[in-house]
């Protein structure tokens, strides 16, 4: 890992050598003053352990590929808290940023480039799908998982489990890949790619982050929940 070797580097120092750490900065809501603080201080302020943030940074340093060994050693509660912060980040920051850019393109080019209007409609459909995906996790799976983590009894008529969650857990990255392919093919035909370069950059970054998010859920969090289910049914 490329984290500086001094014992407690500031997040700003880490950010300088791991550019993808901006995801962590934005999801935790770290401001400019907090960036100057050591990672262990920020972890305490945001309600995480330093080990947890370091494990995430390992993933960010490796091209957004999760480090299962590092993450599996962490608590399910911290994982769920981070995933919920990620949900808020997508809904309150990333989607509005992308929508704002699309609206600007439509305002500037819509009259002479129908692609802008089509792209706006496609992204709106994607936004609704992502919102429904997140709402299901926040309202169904996460409360179920949290009860297991806290050792709370499940209702006698409970039929829900992690297997059902996995069967319904669809990949949202594929839709973003389709959007990128559609845009590239259409824009090249009309020689109008330049107005969409920022949009493509946003979508590419969101796709990578959502892929990591999904891997943490399926490969790290769910196995922890399955272990608790096995104990419950033993």
Order of helices and strands: HHHHHHHHHHH
What is the average of the pLDDT values?
86
Q: In which range does the helix fraction lie?
A: over 70%
Largest sheet report: none
Q: Helix count, per DSSP?
A: 11
| Total separate domains | 2
| Percentage of β-strand residues | under 5%
- Contiguous runs where pLDDT drops below 50 for at least 5 residues: none
Distance from N terminus to C terminus (CA atoms, Å) equals: 40 Å
Class by alpha and beta content: mainly alpha
Radius of gyration: 20 Å
Describe, in plain words, how this protein is organized in 3D.
There is one protein chain. By secondary structure, the protein is mostly helical. The chain has two domains: 11-70, no CATH class; 87-233, no CATH class. It has helices at 11-17, 22-28, 32-35, 39-46, 50-61, 68-72, 76-109, 114-149, 162-168, 173-190, 197-233.
Topology readout:
Blueprint: H1 11-17, H2 22-28, H3 32-35, H4 39-46, H5 50-61, H6 68-72, H7 76-109, H8 114-149, H9 162-168, H10 173-190, H11 197-233
Helix pairs in contact: 4-5, 7-8, 7-11, 8-10, 10-11
Descriptive terms for the model:
mainly alpha, 11 helices, 75% helix
Short description:
This protein has helices at residues 11-17, 22-28, 32-35, 39-46, 50-61, 68-72, 76-109, 114-149, 162-168, 173-190, 197-233. With 234 residues, it is an all-alpha fold.
